[in-house]
């Protein structure tokens, strides 16, 4: 209803909502561990080559026999614990039966590259995973290791080890057996 100026002293009730009190801006909660990644203008090199699978024979053997395990471990670290190793491994396992697991796995290579400013080499991430699938998963595992993570331990254990004394705890050396 439009107000008219014919001398009617009634005024229409205000339909505007009352002004809200200013509130503090939303502050996201910090993660228990958030490694800082430097802003890099020039992309970094991968710490190992795509075909350097035998630099870590245990991950190479695991990936050849059951790639869903290695991929699940990688995915949990890359997603900082929001994706579980078992969940990512099961998705991989189901997609592998349809011969389309590379559609899922290349996205994690892309995330890993963006986390550490790595070059997209030797070609696009999708093609690396389509043509050299097991080698790509092994390379990503080695890259996480060289960045200070142990993907086989899971995200929470890695966070605990990074937060302990503010540094990564040194590895324990097993003493040889004596006769």
Can you describe this structure?
- The protein has about 180 residues and is an all-alpha fold.
- Helix content is about 45%, strand content about 0%.
- It is globular.
- The N and C termini lie far apart (about 100 Å).
- About 25% of the residues are buried.
- Mean pLDDT is about 80; it is low at about 25-30, about 35-40 and about 170-175.
Task: Write down the overall mean pLDDT.
Answer: 78
Order of helices and strands: HHHHHHH
Q: Helical residue percent?
A: 40-55%
Low-pLDDT ranges:
23-30, 36-40, 168-173
Beta fraction: under 5%
From the helix content, strand content and strand pairing, which structural class follows? mainly alpha
**Major sheet size, sense and barrel closure:** none
Shape: globular
| Radius of gyration, CA atoms, in whole angstroms | 26 Å
What gap, in angstroms, lies between the N and C termini? 100 Å
Tell me which oligomeric state these chains represent: single chain
Number of helices: 7
User: Total strand count, please?
Assistant: 0
Layout of SSEs?
Elements (H helix, E strand, L loop, with lengths): L56 H9 L1 H12 L6 H13 L3 H16 L8 H7 L1 H14 L8 H9 L16
Helix pairs in contact: 1-2, 1-6, 2-3, 2-4, 2-6, 3-4, 4-5, 4-6, 5-6
């Amino acid at each position: 209803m439009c107000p008219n100026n014919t001398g009617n002293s009634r005024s229409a009730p205000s339909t505007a909502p009352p002004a809200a009190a200013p509130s503090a801006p939303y502050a996201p909660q910090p993660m228990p561990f958030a490694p800082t990644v430097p802003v890099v203008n020039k992309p970094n090199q991968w710490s190992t080559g795509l075909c350097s699978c035998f630099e870590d024979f245990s991950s190479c053997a695991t990936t050849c026999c059951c790639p869903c395990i290695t991929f699940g471990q990688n995915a949990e670290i890359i997603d900082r614990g929001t994706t579980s190793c078992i969940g990512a491994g099961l998705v991989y396992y189901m997609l592998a039966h349809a011969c389309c697991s590379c559609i899922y796995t290349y996205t994690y290579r892309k995330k890993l590259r963006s986390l550490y400013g790595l070059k997209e080499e030797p070609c696009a991430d999708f093609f690396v995973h389509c043509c050299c699938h097991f080698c790509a998963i092994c390379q990503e595992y080695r890259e996480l290791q060289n960045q200070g993570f142990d993907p086989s331990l899971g995200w929470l254990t890695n966070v605990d080890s990074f937060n302990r004394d503010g540094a990564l705890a040194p590895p324990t050396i097993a003493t040889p057996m004596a006769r």
